[in-house]
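Need C-alpha cells for this chain, all 182 residues.
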Amino acid sequence: MYLEKRWTTHLPILMELVKITEGTILEFGSGLFSTPFLHWVCIKNNRKFITLENNLKYWGFCRQFKSKNHIVKFIEDWDKIEDIVSQQFSIILIDHEPMQRRGKDAILVKDSADFIVLHDTETKNEHLYNYDKIWKYFKYRYDYEWYYPRTTIVSNRVNLDFLNELLKPLCFYENNGSTTCP
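Here are the C-alpha cells for all 182 residues:
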C-alpha cells in the first residue's frame, strides 16, 4: 500500500467541523487518516462515531478502532443501510468505494446531517463519483478549493456562508506544483 498527501485534503474541514458540532459522526468508507482522527476526537469528547466499510483491504485496519463510542460495520451491500442512515448526524463524511456510489449515497443522506462532507469533488472528476447529479438536492453548498483534490460541504439544514471565514487555507498550492505554508 502506498500513501499520498492528496488523501488528506478533507482533514482541515473535518478538524474545524468537529469543533463546532456535538452530535454523532458517520463515515462512509474508512481512511488511514480520517478514521484515526475522528476516532480519537470522538473518544476525547465522548461522541458517537460510526464507520461503514465495504473494502476488505481497509476493514482489517478500521475494525481495530471499534470501541464503546465507535461502531465499525462491514457493509456487504450499500443498498441495505437504511437503518443506519435513517438516524440524525452532525457530520457525515462520504469517501467510500465504489466511487460511483458516492453521489447516490449523498442523496440518500441529504436530510440526515447538519454537514455532509464529500471528498474528491473537483469538477473534472464529478462524473466519476456521480456528484454532477446531486447538487440540486442541497440547499447549501461550499466548495473548499484550496487543496487538490477538492472537498465540498453540503447541507439542507445549515447555511454554509460562515465557512468562508472558518476554512481559510493552511497552505497554498502554487501553479508549478510546489506548496507554500505560512
